[in-house]
Hints:
about 775 residues; mainly beta; 22-stranded antiparallel β-barrel; five-stranded mixed β-sheet
Amino acid sequence: MINSTKWGARFLTTTAMGVCLATTPALAQNANRAPAEQTDGEAASVGEIIVTANRREERAQDVGISISAFSGDMLQSKNIRTAEDLAKTVPGLNSTASSGSSVSTVVIRGVGVSDFNDHQEQPNATYQDGVYIPFSTAVGIPVFDIERVEVLRGPQGTLFGRNATGGLIQYVANKPRAGTSAEIEVGAGERSLWRGQGSLNLGNDTIAARASLYYQTQDGYVKNLSGRNRGDKDVFAWRGQIKFTPDALTTINLRAEGYRQRGTNPGYIAYPAYYPGAEAAYLPETIDFWGTGPGKDLYGYRNPYKPSAQTVDLNNEGLLNKDSRTYALTIERKLGKATLTSITSYGKVNNAYVEDTDSTPFRQFEAGNVTSAHDFQQDLHISGGSDRLRYTVGGFYLDIKGNYGLYNLFDSYLAVAFGGAFSAPEQDHVIINNDYGVSTKSKAVYGQFEYDLSDKVTFIVGGRYTWDNVKLNSLTVNCLQTIDGLCDFFGGIPTTTLNTFVTGLGPVTINRSYSDWSGKAQINFKPSDDLLLYASASRGTKAAGYTAPLTGLYPIVDLPYRPERLNAFEIGEKAQILDRRLTINSSFYYYDYSDFQTFLFQNTSTKVLNRDAQAYGGELEVSGRFDGEWTANFGAAYSHFLVNDIITVRAPTGEKQRPINQPEWQLLWGLSKSVQLNDKLSVDLSYNGRYVGNAFYNIVNDPIVKAPGYVVHDATIRLESDKGWWVAGYINNIFDKTYQVGAFDVSFFSWSLRQFGEPRTVSVAAGIKF
Length: 770
């Protein structure tokens, strides 16, 4: 077993030594050369991408933030089509489409809330063209017609609208521009995959418009013997933009976009589970029995298929319908050396979701939710500066309103507990409906200042003050029972006559307000154009909220959870050597959390907990180009993250546990070669691999929710013509690896649930630009 502390220290020490040694010759070669003076070969260096992480255009190498950035062409070459795919390329990032609901969860450096209720905001903020996406159901957007994507690790809030403790993902779409151009791509692949996307740009220097479309349909990869396969999808997304430039000082951009998905979630593979006494959960290979025989659940059923078969037999095939819309108006006005920017937006999401939770032919446990929510945002900031001083000062307003409903059906097991007939599972059940609303209003002022103390040293200071009001509206829990006494089991809901709805909890309204500050202080040291060293201390905050109880088991006083606060310390370096053909970036951090917001799933109950936590770790990214044709990259992320005072069967008074979906180690690597076949054709070959260490999918780190580490390989070949057309082939998961990406402990009902990633998928695509 790896000693995480020892190996973490070695990782940090070795990386730091390597950077110091590697950057020594760079100081002599490029000490007095500005970026504009580089040769053509240097301009082709790896990692040269312009970002706006500091609200202005800069080379990523000049920004003192742990940041991974990718152009649209880079994403296309890696076959990055969804937000979840970004985890294939970014060290320290894990992102999954969460089973249990319609949400997508993002984890950066171990920070992320895995509560699958739609109303929860995440600690990692996602932005599309400067507009914050507050809804987890809308985070998993298709990646199409994109100029670039930026992933910022660490607390953010002194430069962006919504404060975030974990990090930030920013999508920047291609904007309308003068001239006429178009692009079309079509593709096909396994499991009846059909994909198409395209864009059309028209305009001149005064007014221009751009329309973009994306469509994908594909059968599910989890075979269902009694219905359609699980994980099927039918996705349509669109974006329309109009850019108006009435004069040299003003730019107006109106954007409307939408996203629609129909299909089902991949769901789970069900395993029998057994808790002997107070011991920890056994894995399926070592279980004894429960109820009706060795290795079977209460119905005497055991999934006869191996996980690699990805085969289930369901009585309910499920449903996943998502719709989102965003309308945004961005106005930029130059005021001398400053730029005033106003971003006004309105967003709306609707969602309907149903799953066969038990993943068996019996109607044991079903769940679902519905969502109707909208938000209004206003961000107003001014950026500018002089030769030595640069600044951004702004204000942000956010208003979110949503109505939500949860549906849960529990069947024969509870009926048995209360004297029901075990042989009649379709007649003995209890249904719990939880209807509630959540409204959030947030106001903030923020700013950041950078001052050059000398030609090589820059001091950065930023601050933010936020006022949040979060209201839980009219929470009502209703219970439908078929046997007297079943509803009593769920939080004292009163029993009435058979087959009637009763009101057990509600209507309940809770209204709470909070205010807090966050900030940042940083020193940048740039001894040469090709080396940046930085050190920062930050304080981050995330708003409070409410747990939406699935079953009404929690007392009202336990529904609110407190804001989380983070003290973060980070050092890092960014270096380029060998005439900028080799890039070496690394960062090291220490986190001290107060009231870290984490998620507990326990049988039929869910809850967001506040616990203190500590973490340290780092990231390393190395990329290089050799002989003009070969490009190689390597990335690594290490995280030692422990959450305090989590009650487990081993420690009734609490113990330290790892956060959800956070491996200690994550490794990424790739190799590509570009070959010019003749003066008209070129071919690009690329291979990418990733290792993700073992992770837990509940804050209680029982073996039943542990996912083992895995390695997955992908490859791409692309033939391109100077006439603007191309053809490409993709293989994802080359060796058809079965790897786990989720787990739930429902041993109360005699089984555990596991979700697996997609099997090998082969696809082709062809496109043209004109």
